[in-house]
Design goal:
This protein is an alpha/beta fold. Helix content is 39%, strand content 16%.
């Protein structure tokens, strides 16, 4: 694998303070770690979770990368871009049909990712050892990355983020906040936070339990005690919400920060809702991790005929 490992290291993303007078009057300060500004289209925790997987692929002398995701997957989108950037062949195993009009699919193919479609029944086998064994036998030179870049190596990439924040600022945050789905981001934070800092997680999966999601990561009880979970599915994963659409537009107009309707939009909406409900946390300083994924706005607009603001992520190929 002819890859410069320096390409795997993210730039340092800035921390910005949101100007929210009503919250400030109550002694509440909200900051955002702008990981959405990292590494072009692969932005945010999607790139962070890939870094140690990619380093492991280099160590094992693998020459191509395989992973899994839905048709609008931020993870596959990020992987396709990283593969193109580093001249690495990539294979994306997609749940369901591949719609050529889908902007996420178009971009992944532009970046050279070979896409394979699985039925939803077949896709459920993606964690099965026998299925993965057959896949590895078919592609012996490939390194297989779990869906979402999850697992212990994905968690290590988020630990890098936490260390970056501690090196970046002397400011002490009372609370950190992030969305949760596969759990790698929350696990990386819970395993690395210092002092009495608590982590607020906003679960975007309907019916899911944050503690159950985090079980495979082997966190200590003392680390899990930092966890404050909030439901944030708002009707279900990737379901349309006019309430979220309005919030994303308003937030973008006010702060010039783009959110997506699947993860960060729901997280920020529920964060503000909870801050307005709480009367016992101020004064407080909160650090919200912007996990990227704004490419999903393009697909959301296509699916629902909406007009969410969209990022300018696509390089000239």
């Amino acid at each position: 694998m002819n890859t410069d490992q320096s390409d795997l290291i993210p730039n340092i993303s800035p921390i910005v303070k949101l100007e929210e007078p009503d919250l400030a009057d109550r002694g509440i300060k909200v900051y955002v770690k702008r990981d959405d500004l990292l590494y072009g289209p692969s932005q945010g925790n999607k790139f962070r979770k890939l870094t140690h997987h990619l380093a492991q692929a280099i160590t094992l002398e693998k020459s191509e990368l395989i992973s899994f995701g839905g048709a609008y997957s931020n993870h596959l989108f990020a992987l396709a871009y990283v593969g193109w950037k580093n001249k690495l062949p990539t294979i994306g195993i997609v749940r369901g049909e591949i719609d050529q009009s889908n902007p996420t699919i178009k971009a992944m193919q532009q970046w050279g990712m070979h896409l394979m479609s699985l039925t939803r029944t077949e896709y459920r086998k993606r964690h099965d050892p026998s299925f993965l064994g057959r896949l590895q036998h078919k592609y012996p030179k490939a390194y297989i990355i779990p869906e979402g870049g999850s697992g212990k190596l994905g968690m290590l990439g988020i630990q890098d983020l936490v260390r970056e924040v501690y090196e970046q600022t002397a400011h002490t945050f009372d609370y950190w906040a992030c969305p949760i789905a596969t759990g790698a981001t929350a696990a990386g934070m819970l395993s690395s936070l210092k002092g009495k800092t608590e982590l607020w997680t906003f679960c975007v999966l309907k019916g899911a339990d944050a503690r159950k999601i985090l079980e495979p990561y082997g966190l200590y009880h003392s680390q899990l005690e930092r966890l404050i979970p909030y439901p944030a599915h708002m009707g279900g994963f990737a379901k349309r919400s006019s309430e979220i659409e309005f919030f994303i537009k308003h937030f973008y107009a006010k702060h010039n920060i783009l959110l997506d309707p699947i993860y960060t939009g729901k997280m920020m909406f529920k964060l503000y809702e909870s801050l307005n409900d709480k009367v016992d946390i101020y004064p407080a300083s909160i650090l919200v991790i912007h996990t990227g994924g704004t490419q999903g706005n393009l697909g959301y607009n296509m699916r629902f005929g909406t007009d969410l603001p969209v990022p300018h992520l696509f390089p000239s190929l």
